[in-house]
Specification:
The protein is an alpha/beta fold. It has one domain: Rossmann fold (3-Layer(aba) Sandwich), CATH 3.40.50.720. Helices cover 47% and strands 15% of the residues. Strand 2, helix 2 and strand 3 form a beta-alpha-beta unit. Helix 1 packs across helix 8. The longest helix has 29 residues. It starts with 7 loop residues before the first strand and ends in a 6-residue tail after the last strand. The structure holds NADP nicotinamide-adenine-dinucleotide phosphate (NAP). The site of NADP nicotinamide-adenine-dinucleotide phosphate has 27 residues, from helix 1 and helix 6.
């Protein structure tokens, strides 16, 4: 067994994309992984892939923006897995529009998933972590936090996650709980594919538009984020907390 040695790791929004990459990596590192996502079937399918590859995982249907849904999922995890050691707040949505066309519903939906969701899951998970005097929380921010045309809601939510991360690091540090955030740049997932479609562009043309701005001259893959999560939840990063780590193939600001 590798470093995580049976610790229970919850990854939200983990049925696909970056979350699925993180779930696979943490299972490879030896964690018992809870794949949480809106659809229990989709979460179970990703968990089944992890199990087929030799890992330990289960899939739960859970809406991060819904207090009752988070509470009942945490109860299930406590009953079946004994608690939570590691939490990765990854679930995310985009509802892009220029400010003058942005609806209140689109603003609220984005805040609900990213900010309310990270708050609800972190508040629930820290109960176990503080009691155990050990825990790791990794939040998914974004380089969009530094300003992104057409994403006032998303940029505000992802910037909010950065302040949330630093505050939790201050509050939970004395209890052995480290809290950090990753701000990915362009990562190839259904989220970025949906952005290409929304702009009426073919995927290859969309990628070609961004490549000149990325010093590494490639777009990121979910594994690029999962590698950094693996570091942040392990012992080698035990003196790293309250940090925002850009993972974007270059400096961003
Ligand atoms: P993705 O492919 O769209 O996957 C997001 C997952 O989150 C989906 O499985 C989705 O489920 C789930 N989800 C959405 N709303 C949820 C809710 N209320 N409760 C639980 N799960 C929910 O996105 P991704 O690209 O992997 O992004 C993962 C995270 O990284 C997000 O926080 C995103 O903002 C952040 N990020 C991504 C990029 C990028 O370039 N891709 C860059 C910076 C930051 P459904 O399929 O059922 O909707």
């Amino acid at each position: 067994m590798s470093e995580l040695n049976g610790k229970v790791a919850v990854v939200t929004g983990a049925a696909r994309g970056i979350g699925a990459g993180i779930a696979r990596r943490l299972a490879d590192d030896g964690a018992r992984v809870v794949v949480a996502d809106l659809s229990e079937d989709a979460a179970a399918a990703t968990a089944a892939e992890i199990v087929a590859a030799g890992g330990e995982a289960t899939g739960f249907g859970s809406d991060v923006s819904d207090e009752a849904s988070v509470a009942s999922t945490v109860e299930r995890i406590a009953a079946e897995w004994g608690g939570i050691d590691i939490l990765v707040n990854n679930a995310g949505i985009i509802m892009d529009n220029l400010l003058f066309k942005m609806s209140v519903a689109d603003w609220d939906a984005v805040m609900g998933v990213h900010l309310r969701g990270s708050f609800l899951w972190s508040r629930a998970a820290q109960t176990f972590m503080v009691e155990r005097k050990w825990g790791r929380i990794v939040n998914l921010s974004s380089t969009s936090a530094y300003g992104s045309r057409g994403q006032a809601n998303y940029a505000a939510a992802k910037a909010g996650i950065q302040g949330f991360t630093k505050t939790l690091a201050i509050e939970l540090g004395p209890f052995g709980v480290n809290v950090n955030a990753i701000a990915p740049g362009f990562i190839a997932t259904e989220m970025t594919r949906a952005s290409a479609t929304r702009m009426g562009m073919e995927w290859d043309d969309y990628v070609a538009l961004y490549l000149p701005q990325i010093p590494a001259r490639r777009v990121g893959e979910p594994a690029d984020i999962a590698n950094v999560v693996s570091f942040l939840v392990g012992e080698d990063s035990s003196y790293v907390t309250g940090q925002i780590i850009d993972v974007a193939g270059g400096p961003v600001h």
